[in-house]
Design brief:
This protein is an alpha/beta fold. The chain folds into two domains: 303 residues, no CATH class; 121 residues, Serine Threonine Protein Phosphatase 5, Tetratricopeptide repeat (Alpha Horseshoe), CATH 1.25.40.20. It has 26 helices and nine strands. The strands form two sheets. A seven-stranded mixed β-sheet has the order 2-1-4-3-5-6-7. α4 links the parallel β3 and β4. It starts with a helix and ends in an 11-residue tail after the last helix. 49% of the residues are buried.
Length: 478
């Protein structure tokens, strides 16, 4: 670490390097790996900021990127969302799992002014610096200007150990709120900005695998090991409040983070930020919309994290996916791409006719198909791609059992409706498969009338509410 400080403490930023801001303040993965090699194992991102970034920038009161070689800084290809309390090497390993050395990733620790506000205010140009820092915190514009969004979430054992009752009551452990991106309000807002912009969203939960003793100083040797245990546990959970989905019909037995996804419970380092962000959400898209988008992304992550070739393709590197062979491997990749709404790798796989057929793919042991996975995630554009490729919209999953009672088969429309995914419900061909089309402006009622559990009852309620004029227009924002 001392060597890293020595290389930056004596550097004076130039007038040109001080202009590196916003979308153009990303660092190359090659630089990030080299930088991380000098960071002691066990450091959190907060430690890196406090012990490396702030000391290096305190004299010039600049962003860390202003001190780097021009070749190491560029326009963001990827936006990385993460938490500062999490291990720094886990973050680097996760990004290395999907990004290439020559790609640029935007990290707030390097791209934002990190000197304390009081120190910035005391400078001769203090007002300008404070204004710039406020502009730096407009993460949404940077997210939407990037090509891919990567959220790195730390595995929290306390979440994995939650009982079904605790999960259904949204009892988020404080350790999770402090360390996991899924419960930090900034991270959720960044993810929603990416989803609304139509960016590929890659969610990774896991840890860096430590190198052997002889490679201890070479972060390039670190591998990322996905860990889905926090996202799902083996104990069945009841339906989430407001959801009619029987646990056995979810794409896994129980989704802990899915159940806990509630932006109103998320926290921030500064409570004023949390209050301001929640007010903005409530006055624009609404809390339900944010939670629905987040849950859809979590559903996709369950099937994507172990399919590295799919994630690499979504991040611009098609070679590993192109080299993938075997119907089983290709079928798993197709399911992963559909579940995550990753349309670039999906299109690549759909073009490999004869090697993998969308209508013949089933997720091993679950009977799920690409179209049911896409519907559960709420990916409308993905659904349309699958339908155009010949996916069976009438398909329903094999009967399953919940609490000793047989549960009816579920169609893609039922999955989309139960998840509250209005855009997916509106996919015309998907709705026609149910032989029932909600009248214009009332499709959302399919999402909150129990349509998935009982289509006939749901249809009757929709028709009744339309007839008496109680269609909730405000909910059309979802």
């Amino acid at each position: 670490m001392s060597k890293l400080l020595e290389t930056t403490l004596g550097i004076e930023p130039t007038s040109e390097s001080l202009k590196r801001r916003g979308l153009h303040a990303a660092v190359s993965m090659r630089f990030l790996k080299t930088f991380a090699a000098s960071v002691p194992r066990g450091f959190s991102t907060a430690d890196v900021v406090e012990k490396i970034v702030q000391p290096a920038t305190v004299k010039a009161l600049c962003r860390y990127v202003a001190l780097l070689d021009a070749a190491d800084v560029g326009t963001a290809f990827a936006f990385a969302s993460h938490t500062w309390r999490a291990p720094f090497h886990d973050l680097v390993a996760a990004l290395s799992h999907v990004l290439e050395d020559d790609q640029f990733v935007w990290l707030d620790m390097f791209a934002v002014l990190q000197s304390p506000p009081d120190l910035l205010k005391s400078a001769a140009n203090g007002e300008q610096l404070i204004a710039e820092k406020i502009e730096d915190l407009d993460f949404a514009s940077v997210v939407q200007g990037s090509k891919v969004f990567v959220l790195v979430g730390t595995h929290v054992p306390e979440v994995e150990r939650l009982s079904p009752e605790e999960a259904s009551r949204c009892m988020v452990p404080m350790e999770a709120k402090l360390r996991s991106a899924f419960f930090r309000i900034w991270c959720l807002v960044e993810m929603v900005a990416a989803l609304q912009a139509g960016l590929p969203v890659i969610l990774l939960v896991g840890a860096a695998v430590a190198p052997s003793s002889q490679d201890r100083d070479h972060v390039a040797q670190l591998a990322f090991k996905p860990n889905k245990a926090m996202l799902t546990n083996s104990a069945p959970a009841p339906p989430t409040p407001g959801s009619h989905l029987a646990p056995s019909h979810r794409c896994v037995s129980s989704l802990a983070v899915f159940d806990l996804m509630d932006v109103q419970q998320a926290i921030a380092s500064f409570d004023a930020d949390r209050v301001r962000i929640l007010n903005d959400i409530e006055s624009t898209v609404g809390f339900a919309a944010v939670n629905t988008l987040g849950r859809g992304a979590v559903m996709g992550a369950m099937h994507c994290m172990d399919e590295r070739e799919v994630l690499q393709a979504a991040a611009g590197n098609m070679a590993p996916l192109a080299a993938l062979q075997g119907q089983g491997n290709l079928g798993s990749a197709l399911c992963a791409a559909a579940a995550g709404g990753l349309n670039v790798p999906l299109q690549e796989l759909l073009q490999r006719k004869g090697e993998v057929e969308v209508g013949a793919v089933r997720l091993l042991g679950q009977g799920r198909t690409p179209i049911t996975l896409a519907a559960a995630g709420g990916h409308a554009a993905t659904l349309q791609m699958l339908i155009d490729a010949g996916a069976e919209v009438h398909h329903s999953c094999s009967p399953s059992f919940s609490g000793g009672s047989r549960v009816n088969n579920w169609t893609p429309l039922m999955y989309a409706a139960d998840g509250g995914h209005l855009a997916a419900v509106k996919v015309r061909c998907l709705r026609s498969a149910s032989h029932f089309k909600a009248p214009p402006g009332a499709q959302l009622l399919l999402c909150n009338t129990g349509f998935a559990r009982s289509p006939c009852r749901g249809e009757r309620e929709v028709r009744h509410r339309v007839r008496v004029g109680t269609v909730p227009r405000a909910e059309e924002r979802v």
